[in-house]
Design brief:
- It contains 24 helices and ten strands.
- With 474 residues, the chain is an alpha+beta fold.
- The protein has two domains: 163 residues, Alpha-Beta Complex (YbaK protein); 189 residues, Orthogonal Bundle (Hypothetical protein af1432).
- The strands form three sheets. A five-stranded mixed beta sheet has the order 5-2-3-6-9, with no helix packed on it. The protein has a three-stranded antiparallel beta sheet with strand order 1-8-7. Strands 4-10 form a two-stranded antiparallel ribbon.
- The longest helix has 19 residues.
- It starts with a helix and ends in a 5-residue tail after the last helix.
Length: 474
């Protein structure tokens, strides 16, 4: 358990007693708190804000959300969060690990606000990120407050429990949604998609995989040359192949066996492509559309879409493996929105959690300012994905789509409606779309049988979704 030199020196110079608590580097602060049996209000998180004047650090409990209306009024500044990798870069220049953000204004010489809810109980300890990526610093509450004596203390945040109560009690109207969104998200980012001036660049590894995918005659060795350069990808491929879902009864003791004898070229490329592409985006693990739910839904939808693609008559010429990729990537717009608009995305998850009967698209429109299929299709076009994938991402909620490649968007639509039966769908109902079913020549009985086949592999699918959500490590 190591602290960056600048953090350790600062803590030692201040002279307050502290202890170090091991914290798995892959965990979020909330997950770490749960595993360590610590109340989330005792664990500190940091938000960096900016305007033309400069940076501001806000320190609050990890389960709280900022009240931007109070912050901006208090400082008389029009602040907005740092997005993408800006926050990571700020702390990395001081020797902190990526994603590790110590709440120490004395180290960083930055204007700081601290929420008084952190120090409400002087008999409790405070836990904060030490900057090393694998350790929390524990300190007595009075000492922590003294450590942050240069900060401006006040009420700048609200607990998610209080927010949930507020959201649940109010009449659910566009006006109320808009009002709450403006209070808890930065004003400059209330124009939704218009605020996204530049999409992230596709990762280099994903570009190489996509190039292979578009090249005829790809061999297992071609994939292995790429995968061997990234141990985490190599481990994922072997893990996927060992899943009973593929029905392989022999040992999977090499990448070649995994690709050539179990997964197949195209399935391997599809899974690698989805995994590599997702590493570009950083969104919360938990929540109705957090990373865990995203990958679980995507894996189920991909598997079911692939099964459904085997049912239509041959003249439609549908490729089940391409259909799998469509199902895997159809909700990628959430990753973009969560990465670019983290404050909106956090609030979006809170709304969904306490308003489960409200159509997801309604909440998207008024909290995020754009629906996920819109930004997802934009990303797929920007990254030169196959036209079939773009169509599936763009039209997978449309019940009467007749656009080019509509067969793929219709398959994803049907898969989503079927997944409603197992509580894993963003569709508002489980009614199978009549036009899409008729156009594809799929009966209800066939569709339900396909769902049953996918459900029989629930353990393997859940395991695969857990592997995909884990961050890549070199």
């Amino acid at each position: 358990m190591n602290l960056p030199d600048i953090v350790r020196t600062h803590l030692d110079q201040q002279g307050f007693p502290y202890r170090l608590v091991s914290c798995p580097s892959a965990e979020t602060l909330i997950q770490a708190a749960e595993k360590l049996d610590i109340a989330t209000r005792q664990v500190v998180r940091v938000v960096l804000l900016k305007d033309d004047i400069g940076l501001v650090m806000v320190i609050l409990p990890c389960s709280y959300i900022l009240d931007f209306s109070i912050i901006c009024q208090s400082l008389r500044r029009d602040l907005e969060p740092l997005y993408g990798t800006e926050t990571h870069h700020f702390f990395e220049q001081y020797g902190c690990k990526t994603g590790s953000h110590p709440p120490l204004p004395g180290v960083f010489a930055i204007t700081t606000l601290a929420d008084t809810s952190l120090v409400a109980d002087e008999n409790k300890e405070i836990y904060f990120d030490g900057g090393g990526g694998d350790v929390l610093v524990a300190m007595r509450t009075p000492d922590f407050r003294e450590l942050l004596k240069s900060a401006r203390w006040g009420h700048f945040a609200v607990s998610t429990e209080d927010l949930d109560s507020l959201i649940g009690q109010q009449e659910f109207t566009p006006q109320n949604l808009t009002s709450l969104t403006r209070r808890y998200t930065p004003a400059k980012l209330q124009e939704g998609i218009e605020a996204i001036t530049e999409l992230p660049v596709m990762p280099e590894t994903a570009q190489r995989i996509l190039k292979l995918r578009n090249h005829p005659g790809v061999l297992a060795q071609d994939i292995i040359r790429i995968v061997e350069q990234d141990p985490s990808l190599a481990a994922q491929v072997v893990y996927w192949a060992r899943s009973p879902l593929h029905g392989h009864h022999g040992a999977v003791d090499s990448l070649y066996t995994a690709i050539d004898q179990v997964l197949g070229i195209e399935n391997t490329l599809n899974l690698l492509l989805g995994s590599c592409m997702s590493q570009t985006f950083h969104i919360p693990v938990d929540g109705p559309v957090g990373l865990r739910a995203f990958w679980q839904h995507s894996i189920y939808c991909a598997s079911l879409t692939s099964e459904l693609a085997k049912l239509p008559p041959e003249p439609l010429n549908i490729n089940p493996k391409l259909a799998y990729l469509c199902g895997l990537l159809h909700d990628f717009g959430y990753l973009v929105l969560g990465h670019v608009f983290p404050a909106h995305f956090f609030l979006f998850n809170r709304f969904l959690a306490v308003n489960q009967s409200v159509p997801l698209s309604v909440v998207e429109r008024y909290v995020l300012g754009v629906e996920h299929w819109h930004i997802g299709a934009w990303l797929m076009q920007s990254w030169n994905m196959p036209d079939e994938v773009i169509a599936a991402v763009r039209w997978h909620h449309n019940t009467d789509c007749t656009q080019p490649h509509a067969e793929y968007s219709n398959l994803v639509l049907i898969a989503n409606r079927l997944l409603h039966h197992v509580g894993m769908s963003d569709e508002p109902n489980n009614r199978l779309p009549a036009l899409a079913m008729f156009t594809l020549g799929i009966t209800r009985e066939q569709a339900m049988e396909a769902l049953a086949r996918v459900q029989s592999s629930i353990t393997e699918l859940n395991s695969l979704s857990e592997v995909l959500r884990l961050p890549a490590k070199g």
